[in-house]
Specification:
The protein is 30% helix and 28% strand. It has 138 residues and is α+β, with helices and mostly antiparallel strands. Helix 3 runs parallel beside helix 4. The N and C termini lie far apart (34 Å).
Length: 138
Amino acid sequence: MKYKRDITTVEEISSLEPETLNHVLSEIGYDPSAGDFFFIKSDPNKVHIIENVDPENRSVLYYNDGKTINVDETLPLFSAGTLIQILGVHQSVDLRDMKGSWLLIFDDRKVIESEDGELLVSFLWRALQILVAENILE
């Protein structure tokens, strides 16, 4: 099966106000690791993959055959699988397919439904933002 997209877009990440994005990343305990996708804030037209993280200084990322960059100069992109893992780390998550739309039941106390035609990865990113904004993520 082919999906239209399985990773958040630069636009989805960049559309958040910096303080909101920082709050989301802080709440989920974002910790970059090899294999993660990211883009450079000053050059958002290219997506890169982290090859390694400096074990002595976790703020230094290696990408593109040994180039280095400070994590503060980058923003992460998330796959649908990563977003499901992030949500599942915090509480019980039930994700249901409703014939082309999605329903997320978070810890039996919050239900979020996808919008018409919303891709799974976009829905999960939006759901994560809602849960953080409403202080439901624990």
